[in-house]
Amino acid sequence: MVRLEVCLSLSVAGLLLCGVAQTQTPTLPDDVDRADALLKQMTTAEKIGQLNQPFYIKLPIPGDKTDPVSYEDRVRHGEVGSFLFLTDPKEINRLQKICDD
User: What does the pLDDT look like over 33-85, one tens digit per residue?
Assistant: First the structure.
């Protein structure tokens, strides 16, 4: 029984270490240069907007005040980096194309 526990423990530890090793991919210098160039083009307000992750909720919640600014307007003005709990592919695609309008 002890031998089985030791084998299972070592197996789990090995799997965890393999997972960590696979998630660390080297960054190419070109990738860093492209990211730096993009960040230099962005305003401070745009950078802050990319950090914003509002909840995407379309259902009315009793006692909750509705935001006077629509999701679409926030996306147009660069005030949203991503939405939490948005899973509908059609809605995601629609919101992604707002800036192209």
Answer: 999 999 999 999 989 999 999 888 776 667 777 777 788 888 988 889 999 99
* 73 touches 45 (CB < 8 A): no
Domain residue extents for the chain: 43-100
In three-state secondary structure terms, 3 is helix
DSSP 31-68: HHHHHHHHHHHS-HHHHHHHT---B---S--TTPPPPS
Q: Which of 42, 97, 58 is nearest to 75 (CA)?
A: 97
99: tokens are: 């800036």
Q: What DSSP state is assigned to residue 14?
A: H
What is the C-alpha end-to-end distance of the chain, expressed in Å?
65
- Which residue's structure tokens are 């948005």? 86
Tokens of 38: 């993009």
